[in-house]
Design a protein that fits this description.
Blueprint: E1 5-13, H1 19-35, E2 38-42, H2 53-58, H3 66-78, E3 81-90, E4 97-104, E5 110-115, E6 121-123, E7 129-131, E8 143-147, E9 150-154, H4 163-171, E10 176-178, H5 185-203, E11 206-209, E12 211-217, E13 220-223, E14 227-229, E15 235-238, E16 244-251, H6 252-261
Parallel strand pairs: 1-2, 1-12, 2-3, 9-10, 10-11
Antiparallel strand pairs: 1-16, 3-4, 4-5, 6-7, 8-9, 11-14, 12-13, 14-15
Length: 270
């Protein structure tokens, strides 16, 4: 039976091209959230590396590689579930990787793997250009994992703008939706929180949104504001500026009460 209540933690990081520093920071912050009582902790998108694209591709790993292996060992040692927000996963397509999120169980096993479906190809009005599809192979499969803590739906960053994905996750029973991100400062200041709250409200689900924050390079600045949101759209916890963690309760009685009082999931026609 799924756990009736537990604490979840969202990690906020400023990842750079320094892989060793990034992993050390990720492990430290997951430990910090676990020390606060979190049984499920999420890391942001690209937590292991944010730097030059050619270096990201050169350092791509499989799900069995050292980065996820370090998180699996930590999950096993602390007895917690960990979301490896996303890594550059090695694939068989020359010059490309997948942007891959990995859900790790409290025994250190891999519970689910999700590859980002929607790729960020955008010319931001502040002058930045993003062309994720030039080096990333898109995924094609929505993922909901049945875990001891409940049914967890997976997504990554730009997926947030496509509500049809979250409808599929909801229809497949998602109770907690993970949205690890590296939202740009330009878009995040206006869109990040409204979109997160909308995904929680329309799907009557908890949302766990770990985030990148601050300056990662001369051309990359992210918005931060990692947060945890309840099924009514209430922001339960938010990280302040800089690296850190926030925690909040997942309460199954709250989820069930909201879904009973506003049974919109049962009224869908399309």
């Amino acid at each position: 039976m799924a756990s009736p209540s537990y604490l979840v933690g969202a990690v906020q990081m400023t990842s750079t091209a320094d892989r060793a520093r990034n992993l050390d920071t990720a492990l430290r912050l997951v430990n910090e959230a676990a020390d606060l009582g979190a049984r499920f902790v999420g890391l942001p998108e690209n937590f292991a590396f944010m730097g030059p694209e050619q270096d990201r591709l050169a350092g791509a790993e499989t799900v069995e590689g050292p980065t996820v292996s370090a998180l699996r060992e930590l999950a096993r040692r602390r007895g917690i579930q960990i979301l490896a927000g996303s890594i550059a996963e090695k694939v068989e397509v020359p010059g490309k990787s997948a942007n891959t999120s990995v859900l790790v169980g409290s025994d250190g096993g891999v519970l689910a793997v999700y590859r980002k479906i929607h790729l960020f190809d955008v010319n931001i009005p502040d002058g930045a250009r993003y062309a994720e599809s030039e080096s990333v192979v898109p995924g094609d499969r929505p993922v909901v994992a049945a875990t001891p803590l409940g049914r967890i739906g997976l997504s990554v960053c730009y997926d947030l703008r496509f509500p049809e994905l979250y409808r599929l996750l909801s229809a497949r029973g998602a109770e907690l939706i993970c949205i690890p991100s590296a939202f740009t400062l330009f878009t995040g200041k206006d869109h990040w929180e409204p979109l997160l709250r909308a995904r929680a409200i329309e799907n009557l689900a908890y949302v766990l949104a770990p985030a990148q924050v601050g300056r990662h390079s001369a051309t990359r600045v992210t918005f931060g504001n990692a947060m945890i949101i309840d099924p009514w759209g209430v922001v339960l916890a938010r990280c302040p500026d800089g690296e850190g963690v926030c925690v909040a309760p997942f309460r199954r009685d709250r989820l069930e009460r909201v879904r009973a009082e506003l049974p919109s999931l049962l009224h869908r026609r399309l």
